[in-house]
Amino acid sequence: MSRNATLVFVNAAHFFDHFFLLIFPTAALAIAPAWGRTYADTLLLGTPLYVMFAVGTLPFGWLGDRIDRVRLIVLFFWGCGASSLMIALSTGSALLSVGLGLLGLFTAIYHPVGIALVTDIGKRTGRALAINGVFGNLGLAGAAIITALLADRFGWRSAFAVPGILSILIGTALFLGSRTAHRQATDADGDARQAPIPVGRRTQLAIVGIVFVAALFGGITFNAVTISLPKFFDERLVAAGGLSGVGASAGLVFALAAFAQLPVGELLDRFGAKAILCPLMAAQALLFLALSQATGWAAFIVALLLVTSLFAAIPITGWLLGRYIRSGLRSRIMSVEYILSLGMAAAIVPLVAFLHRTGRGFDVQLALLAAAAAIIFAAALALPARNPGAVATQTGATR
User: Fold this and answer.
1) N or C: which terminus of the chain has fewer CB atoms within 10 Å of its end residue's CB?
2) What global pTM score does this model have?
3) Structural domains in the chain plus CATH codes
4) What are the tens digits of pLDDT across the range 140-194?
5) Residues 196/200/203/204 CA torsion (nearest 10 deg)
6) Chain segment 49-59, per-residue pLDDT in tens
7) Rounded to whole angstroms, how far apart are CA atoms 144 and 139?
8) CA 251 – CA 335 distance, rounded (Å)
9) How many helices (H) and strands (E) does the chain have?
């Protein structure tokens, strides 16, 4: 299978990864009244999804450095599809939680394996990660919109069944296509991928440390926003108009912000990470504080700006690891990164539920998220001031 064909499937996997992770927060708005539960109690049923997501990331990262990453992406599609169908067929909270836990386990495959695969086969690391990131963002948007529509019209079970079937079909297509040899290093035209930037061991360790700080606190901000945005609009956006309106509003925000990574990918290849990450984190801290006080359409506009800044920052840590760390270590380091980042959703779910149960809600939550963004800003100040690979990148791009 060619590099371009492989990237198409990897990008699709990123779409489905975020889609599967974000079905439940919206579906919970429909499950709660159907099962006679409160929103907070229903949201807690999703905790296994995010716990298993964190637990599975490290072993799959280890496997990603040792066996064919494309076959692991096939397993991702099949496992997520089967788990989603299990959730759709669940008859009680116990079976639902088991199905969500299995879904979390299989969604854990993508980030340490898929992102490492993109940095391996993308001709320009920043651009390839940005395009891949757009697909992940569209998965977020699709989850909010499609889940709400399916749950409203056909019941919440359809919101899991339909993407589950599609995922199995795509995984089968990838399996059949990957039976032919694929070349990770070059395409048929012979263009080589970017080599890592040569730096000392101390610089590499510093970059990994900064990536881990950004992953931990960025995971808190990203997951808190994506998980709770439907509920935020339900409370603050009076004109939302029921579940479909809430889902459409959240989905519209995700969709409009989805393409923020494209210019960031180009800028990373030219200027490096520090010049981009620091302004983004400063903006996020201010936007979190503004959102804590916003209502009505002001809440929608500020949320759009905030989510745009969150999405814009996504490719930066992957770019740092792809440009400074050799391929044979990336999946393992990325697995630790994603344990800290997306795995933070396991802690965010009960925290969000606790804040709502105790009446503190979004005012306190958003203030805490502003502090998390400020911590990332402080860490980003220690990044290399410029991109030593920019000249080589631009030269290679003209060939």
Assistant:
1) C
2) 0.67
3) 3-182+192-398 (1.20.1250.20)
4) 778 878 888 898 889 889 999 999 999 999 999 999 887 654 444 444 444 445 5
5) 50
6) 888 887 887 88
7) 9
8) 28
9) 17, 0
